[in-house]
Amino acid sequence: MRRTPEKEERPREALQGWLPRRGENTRSGLLDKLLQRTAPHLSSLERHDTALRLLNELWDSLRAGAWQRLWPAEKLGRAGSGYQLPYDAWRWATVAGDDPVRRCRRCRGVTHHNLRGICPVYGCEAELERPLTADH
After folding, report:
1. Which of 57, 77, 95, 121 is geometrically suited to a Cys-Cys bond with 109, CB 3.0 to 4.6 A?
2. Global pTM?
3. Integer distance in angstroms from the first to the last C-alpha of the chain?
4. Each residue of 53-73: pLDDT tens digit?
């Protein structure tokens, strides 16, 4: 029996856009949830437009001034070109003992960021519970 060679596996390249191509992405979805809470008078379309405008303004700020050196434009193979934060620019920190950690009531995601009690997980519409204690 003759064995045919397997296709050479190539790493899959993908770009995640800052702005959604259509609909929403994680960033615009979180802003939409925040706007529902802080500006309930806005329609769904107005919230979407406001979220996209805010993301555009934030991107412009991240690409200017002192931040600009952290976002060099790079050729990313077949996926095209884009901006990638270099690994050595990341800073990690532990959550301090007095820094409250919260859990989502529905998806059970855990976060130490609290934006008006909104669960930051994409697609989850639940709220965060009170801060967890060390014995949880």
Report:
1. 121
2. 0.76
3. 59
4. 999 999 999 888 888 888 888
